[in-house]
Write a structure and sequence with these properties.
Length: 196
Amino acid sequence: MRQPCARWGCKNNATYDLPLCREHWQDWDAFELDECSSCHWFYGNAEFIIWDLSDDIDDKHPLMCNNCLAIELIESGKVNPWPGIEWEKRSVASHKTIERLRRYVYILKLSDATFYPGQTKDLAVRLQEHRDGQQRQTKGKDPKLVYFEMFEGMREEVNDREKELNQLNKTSLGRRRIRQMVEEFRSHFRLVDLER
């Protein structure tokens, strides 16, 4: 069922399951929007107050838009933090809880002792695609996952990190740095005792 986008002020269509329009979904995924814990509308970063900046209210809401914070302060008998602005009670935006996309930057070691850096939203599926020979650069080279990093949202950071790893992979000194990263990453797993 159609309903308006949950970004306050947006008139685009959305649904209960997908509460943000495409434009605002991308903003949210890039950490440019957050959800108010009181009214459940989405706002830009400048429209939020985080509780640790204010000792005037208890910790029942960790992240609240300026509008909801002002109303709560006024209703609890505190001073209006932004005098001269008319604050209004807003309806609660009804929508399913949403989570930011997880993205992975990964490194495969190939049978010819080279590395292949890449990125994906689904590490298990992407690894199987490599193993099934669906990627030209790794086909027939027995790709093995040796390193990965996980990011929530932050699409640009993921792209930058993949570019950085590809640049490292072009020089012998860079490949040596990749080997060091892989060994450091793997050293933590060697400490795990799975026998207990």
